[in-house]
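Q: Hi! First time doing this. I have a protein sequence and I read that you can turn it into a structure. Is that right? Here it is:
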Amino acid sequence: MELTQTQVGDTQVLHLRGRLDATSARDLDRDWVSADTRQVTLDLQHCDYVSSAGLRIFMRLQREAKAKGATLTLSGVSPAVYDVLDLTGLTKLFDVRRKAREVSLEGLEFLSAGLCGQVFRLDAETIIKLYNPGVAPQVAEQEKEFARAAFVAGVPTALSYDVVSCGDRTGVVYEMLDAVQLSALVRQDPEQVDRFATVLAEVAQTFHAKMADPAIFPNLKARLGDNIRDLSGMLPEEDIALLASRLDAIPEADTLVHFDLHTSNIMMRGDEPIIIDMGDVSRGHYLFDLGVIAMIFGYEESGSSEFVTKIPNAVGYRLYQRFIEAYFANRLAAERAFFERNRAFLASLRLINAISFLPFAREELVGKVRDQFLPLIRQESTAH
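A: Yes, that's right. Below is the predicted 3D structure, encoded as structure tokens:
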């Protein structure tokens, strides 16, 4: 058996390949749960046999994880291994997720692409969001779970179906929406930017009015704290300490945060907005979503509006200004003032988070945080 280990946020992922028998089980019989681990995932998609010795190791790992406040998931379980777990009654004790259905891209229509993956039309009624090679399978499983939970909570989002695999890639199947991106509407009719900004504000307010189930959605502030600490060696320690102190000042909250909320992740079906791309949904303060919107649209000179949404930067900046007015229209003036005092810091957080899961863009992202945002963050800190 081959055993490799990866870390995805606060999740420890153990990838098993081959047969888990009495001999190879000894390699798995170790302390895998560190103090900051919240989830241990055993990736079994390439494991075709588990003996009784392996099952006992699973049970020990579950006890260890529970004792340290973490959970254990068996992911990518093949039919043969699932039958063993079911016969022994362990499907009732473990969080077991079966191996994803295999699909082929041959003949599928390509629809769009982003930093993390591509979208294809699967059939007349469904699409597949397929993550790039190297993205761990549990990322798709997590997005599926988040999308389902958000839909049940009343968030207007696309129906999600199953998790599928395509070679070494995984993805999520969604309903095919007869809708158009809000970004496309802004580009087509920039004179209506005020109206579109109001739509964006209303969507954000609806999303932020929902409470996030702590059993499903991770704590975004805690994850961002990990992301900041992971910058050690990439930025000076005094800058890392500054970022950590600014994060500490952001209030705690247990409402839903999308953390990639912008016009290209909102589809319009007539007058009905539908939120998509639910892989980063978390629980936390609404300010984190406003920071993402500020990062994309609020710094015209950065070019992020055109890069992310294809909306011209000047139009994106007008959209941002009107969005802020609409979002804070019925909130206390002190809330808006707090946001403005922390705007550059909040805008930097999406980039800091992306550094952890986009290694191919790490140098560029670190440079953007260092050269564009840290000077502004230091000014904000001095002004406090």
